[in-house]
Specification:
Blueprint lengths: L2 H9 L18 H13 L5 H13 L8 H13 L5 H8 L4 H9 L2 H15 L8 H15 L5 H8 L3 H4 L6 H11 L5 H7 L6 E7 L6 E7 L8 H5 L1 E2 L5 E2 L23 H7 L1 H8 L1 H16 L3 H4 L1 H10 L7 H9 L2 H4 L29 H12 L15 E3 L6 E3 L6 E3 L4 E2 L2 H9 L16 H15 L23 H16 L5 H16 L8 H10 L2 H4 L2
Antiparallel strand pairs: 1-2, 3-4, 5-6, 7-8
Amino acid sequence: MKTGVFLLLATALALGACAEDTDPEPAPTPDAVAEERDVCEELQFGNAADAAMCPRVQRAGLNPRYADATTVCRRMAIDLLGRTPTWTEVEGQCQGKSPAEMVDYFMSQPEYVRRHQRRWADLFQYNDGFSHYRHILALDELVAQLYRGEVNYARFGELALTHPGYTGRHFGEARVAVAFRVFLGRDAHPVERADMVGLWTIWQPVQDYDADYYFQHIDVRAYPPICQPPLDELLCHSSVYGDTTVAIPLRDPDASSYRNLIRPDDLTEDEWEALRAPGRILAALPYYNEHAVTEAMDRYLGWGAAAGLPEVRLALLRYFEGVDLDVPAMERELLTSHLYLQTTTPPENEVAPLTGEAPRWRYSPVKFMDVETWLDSLSLTVKRDFGQCDHRFPYVRNGVHPQSGQTIYAPHAYPVANPETNTPDFTYATVARVLGGCPDRLQQFRFTGTGVVHALDQESILQYLCYLPDATGLLPGGHFNAPFAPGADRETRTALFRHQIRSFYSREPADAELGDFLDSTDACLASSACTPDQLPAQLCVALTQGAEFLHY
């Protein structure tokens, strides 16, 4: 491969990824390795992942294959915001912009933080039937701080694993098991569970009463008596990853055991530092940061890229070597790499030996939306807000006011059915759960499969949204006069088709697509099989049932 060609790769949009990298690439000779190293050292890469991929791409003698700006725009919006981009965003924030500028725009939006808060809610398994809603709100805010760049990843784990939103949700060995799955990507070995559970022994569940919303709930307290000699070495000690005892002095040795229950808000900073040992231990393990990079690579690239491209995973880890991992910065590095920005079209005449398949890293796989992304994108496109799922509270606790006898609900982000009592409207949540989203994290977790039932449910939702009389997003200019007739002339139908293709697919329509639409509607209108006022809704249903809307 010529150096000039690879310079193009180093400075332009993108190259590739797809599924697990199993293609048997021949081992390079020592002379070839030296030549690749010399060429790659001469090139100036502004991205750690691109620099790591240089020898592999150089060895294969490939040319760059880029995704167009609108494809990248839609991919980034869905991945980072959990929705498709508006056409205003496509025109103003993507067309003519570099990938770095696109990423910076999308990561600066509040939805970027909310997208990750929803993901961590699934990981931590927020459930207000177990954790007090105030603690969940605080843990949710800690996640926001991580993705606003205010807390590094090591400190985040340290704070999260002894946060009352976590210790009040998980008990016993589950505290160890969930911590390992979330931060290390594997379950804890039985020996690790039995040993490390002592790091959380001091946290004990209690029944408490919410004075504002009048319901009983499970809370947690630090209970120092259980970790005093001689019980401390038996119940509150771990030796698997260093000898550590988690204990704090009694506040009042002469007081009753009940008086020594300490609320999390009443702990001193010195006491907190002693209690946060579990997070510090996990964050110090060499595979703590590695799992964060692995998870991000697999999620954004859409395949087992971390295992298939170990040099990229190592490069991203080394990029932050010597500094605490900044998760948004790590994600930005990955999202501006050629691996993320490449086309989804498999290459022709570029195959691996023996398998006859293109290398897995040569093109991006087609991913599909999760349930909330699909619903939120539909809602945004038709401009009809029918609610949301509050990722923090699957139930929303409530109590009865002692004087008025009125049921009062704790604060939440669901639509409000009754403003006087703050009663949540679960319409959106019910629909999402039928399709496998908005999990309660007790009986139901997020489901991404498909089937006949899901297809029928999706069809009914599409019919509902597309035929709403106030679905103003279906028409150019956003005006919807009921009944509205876009007109039978081709110019009006062209404007309608272009508007909906832009809205649903985030791109301009192809000439062939437009021609097919005009020809088919000519025939439909001529035979009276359809009428002009039906076209906006019918086109909406047709486009949203297409694979291009669901996949990206």
